[in-house]
Amino acid sequence: MYHHLELKQRRGRLRPDDAAVRIQCAVRRKQARLQLKVKKVKRNSYSTSCERVHVVVAQKGGHVFDLKTSDDFLFKHQNSFQQHKLAHSLRHRVKKNAQMFFGGLSIILIGGVVFSILEYEAYEAKLKEKRVELADLEAYFHYNQTVLAFLRKHHAVLGESFHNPWDYSSSVFFAFTIATTIGYGSFAPTTTGGLFFTCMYGFISIPFAGYILVNVATSVLRLLTYIYTMFVDKVEKAFDLLDSDKGGSLDRKEMRMALEELDIHLTDDEFEMLMETIDADKDNEINKEEFRHAVTLLHADLSEVSGRSAQMAILVFALIVWIGLGTLYFSLDEKWHYGKALYFSFITLTTVGLGDYTPSERGYVVLYAYTFIGLGMLAVAINLVTVIAQKMKERTIQAIGRTKSSVAAKLGASIGSVESKAMKSK
Fold first, then answer.
1. Residue 162, SS3 per DSSP
2. Cα–Cα distance for residue pair 7/58, rounded to 1 Å
3. Domains of the chain: which residue ranges?
4. Which is nearest to 38 in space by CA: 278, 276, 270, 298?
5. What fold does the segment set 234-306 form as a domain?
6. 301 near 262, Cβ under 8 Å?
7. pTM across the whole model
8. Of the candidates 321, 84, 366, which has an alpha carbon nearest to the alpha carbon of residue 220?
9. CATH assignment of 87-229?
10. Where are the alpha helices (DSSP H) in 251-363?
11. pLDDT per residue of the chain (426 residues) written in tens, 0 to 9
12. Count of alpha carbons within 13 Å of 249, Cβ hemisphere only?
């Protein structure tokens, strides 16, 4: 269907290209009302004005434009809509992760300030007492350095280790171990205020930190899944996953569920139009090539669905690599041998936190990033195990149901055959 519309400029205030855009918007709204039976269509921006109407010929010399409405206007609209939705979703995830990161950072920094205020002076008073005891011990041995060196070596005297662990950086480290439930236990509050605040701080920070960890790890998993899907046939992987009965094709119900899984929501009329367009052999079954055609028309993003079956393997591989990277870093930075560094990385990421080994202050920042990402991946892996177990349970129930139906059908056929033979014998 062609629309020949003459553009009348309003004394130079309306350029031909501006008028063309307005005509496209008008035709688009009209077609939407007629073919989709939509009562109200919102005026969209210029970026979506050409989704359903294509400028075929634009005569620059005059002011007559030939506009053609495309038969697949619906799918071009879905194409643009999906692109816009993906971009919006990406911006939303980046913004959300940034907000959560700064929120979690603020909680840990504020916790460090409060712990330092509550514990620093009290611990400093204890250190003064120990310094007095050390001075008395040195005087008792007449400042014999050989004896004092022996006592320091065997930790009988603290000596140069008089250090207040409640300075700001160490207090932030302690707040971090509380929020992530690692709890190394290398030092702990002793004042009444510190003990009470530890309970209140853990009650607030642990759920919030867990939420942040899962969201950060989910974003990392999406990135790894996207990288994985760059090297596989997305359509084939997605089709095999969406084919719930493994029959080699999608019936109407499975196709409908597949679109919902891909976050593509169509009305009944739109779905019928899609099926009519892609079902080449008109058998109401969508094979892999027809599904590929639908994906192309709708510009569907298959990254998440096509990589879902491999997500557990991706996570396990990522965790192994992450523990390996932590082992390498801590062995180099802390001068630990590989066994000790591997032990520390594992104890940290499993939140066992025995506290027999802790990194020096210079490694705190790396430890924070390493723990946040690693704990998040572990939490997502546990959640994936739960989801996989639930799906296996559902598939088992469905298989049992199909087996019961098959047995009942065969039993009914057998009974019918026996009855017919009995009737013939009579």
1. coil
2. 11
3. 2-70, 87-229, 234-306, 307-353
4. 270
5. Recoverin; domain 1 (1.10.238)
6. yes
7. 0.63
8. 321
9. 1.10.287.70
10. 252-261, 268-278, 288-298, 303-306, 311-333, 338-349
11. 333 333 343 444 444 445 455 555 555 555 555 544 444 444 443 333 343 333 333 333 333 333 333 444 445 554 555 555 556 677 777 788 788 888 888 999 999 999 999 999 999 998 888 888 878 877 887 778 887 777 777 665 555 567 888 999 999 999 999 998 888 878 889 999 999 999 999 999 999 888 888 787 777 778 888 888 888 888 888 888 888 777 788 888 888 888 888 878 888 888 888 888 888 888 888 888 888 888 888 878 787 788 877 888 888 888 899 999 999 999 999 889 999 999 999 999 888 887 788 888 888 888 888 988 888 888 888 777 777 777 777 767 766 776 777 777 777 777 767 667 667 665
12. 11
Contact 312, 388 (CB under 8 A): yes
Residue 134 tokens, joined: 């050390």
The span from the CA of 71 to the CA of 274, in Å, is 11
Amino acid symbol at 261:
E
C-alpha 330/C-alpha 358 separation (Å) is: 10
Region label for 376, one of left (φ > 0), alpha (ψ between -120 and 50) or beta (otherwise)? alpha
104 Cβ neighbours under 8 A, 6+ residues apart: 179, 208, 209, 212
CA torsion 109→115→120→121, rounded to 10°? 130
Distance CA 257, CA 264 (A): 10
Within this chain, domains 87-229 and 234-306 share the same CATH topology: no
Residue type, 107: I
Token pair 């008089």 in the structure block, residue: 162
Q: What integer pLDDT is reported at residue 55 of this predicted model?
A: 35
At residue 142, the pLDDT reads 78
Q: How far apart are CA 384 and CA 214, in angstroms?
A: 12
Q: How far apart are CA 164 and CA 364, in angstroms?
A: 17
* Residue 190: other Cβ atoms inside 10 A: 13
Burial of 145 (0-12, 13-18, 19+ CB in 10 A): exposed
| Cross-sheet strand order for the sheet of 53-58 | 2-6, 64-69, 53-58
Nearest CA to 365 out of 328, 320, 329 is that of: 329
Residue for token pair 């939509």: 38
Contact 229, 307 (CB under 8 A): yes
